[in-house]
Automatic annotation (TrEMBL):
Protein name: Ornithine carbamoyltransferase
Organism name: candidate division WOR-3 bacterium
Domain Aspartate/ornithine carbamoyltransferase Asp/Orn-binding stretches: 150-208
Recorded GO MF terms: amino acid binding; ornithine carbamoyltransferase activity
Domain of life: Bacteria
Length: 209
């Protein structure tokens, strides 16, 4: 497993299944009100160029439930790429925190953070991918079906960042996916080609219409 999660493709099939299984196990511990210390003494910096109710709350709550803490940095706190360069932010935060969670507009900022940080960088949303959302979706499917193998999913809408990560994740895990997008709103060709290759390798079916 790589240091960062800037793209869902940084996880292979085994790592994705292991991560989902670990998530289910930790959730059971939390629901049983057991005290966890996996992140004890650890601090996550949450860089949010775009405000979000669910993303902010879930990351902050998760760090607390694992025994750590989180520091929220909103749009006016950093001026990412404007007042403070992305490499400088990455290098400075690496000295003070144990993990950087970034919810940004341009995907390039996530990859720049990862390239310059010495701590893990997690993509909490960019204009190109939304890997954490897809991991949560796969966890829901696993809860309902008991397994991912043989699942068939449909995406109806524009080929956006969530669609990109979903296509790639389904290709990695072997989930069959049907994608229907309006003309002119198709997923990027590069993503479609990569997802189709991953699907061929895993034995999944990916249909784009």
């Amino acid at each position: 497993m790589t240091k960062d999660l800037t793209s869902i493709t940084e996880l292979n099939r085994t790592e994705m299944h292991d991560l989902l299984d670990r998530s289910r196990s930790l959730r059971s511990e939390i629901r049983a009100r057991r005290r966890l210390s996996l992140a004890e003494g650890r601090m996550a910096a949450l860089i949010f160029e775009k405000p979000s109710l669910r993303t902010r709350v879930t990351f902050e709550v998760a760090m607390r439930q694992l025994g750590g803490s989180a520091l929220y940095l909103g749009p006016g706190d950093i001026g990412l790429g404007v007042r403070e360069s992305v490499p400088d932010v990455a290098r400075n935060l690496s000295r003070w925190v144990d993990c950087i969670v970034a919810r940004v507009f341009e995907h390039a900022k996530v990859t720049q953070l990862a390239a310059n940080a010495t701590v893990p960088v997690i993509n909490a949303l960019s204009d190109f991918e939304h890997p954490c959302q897809i991991l949560a979706d796969l966890l829901t499917i696993l809860d309902i079906r008991g397994q991912l193998d043989g699942a068939v999913m449909a995406w109806v809408g524009d080929g956006n960042n969530v669609c990109n990560s979903l296509m790639l994740a389904c290709g990695i895990t072997g989930i069959n996916l049907r994608v229907a997008t309006p003309k002119g709103f198709e997923p990027p060709r590069l993503v479609s080609e990569q997802a189709l290759k991953l699907a061929r390798d895993s034995g999944a079916q990916l249909l784009l219409t």
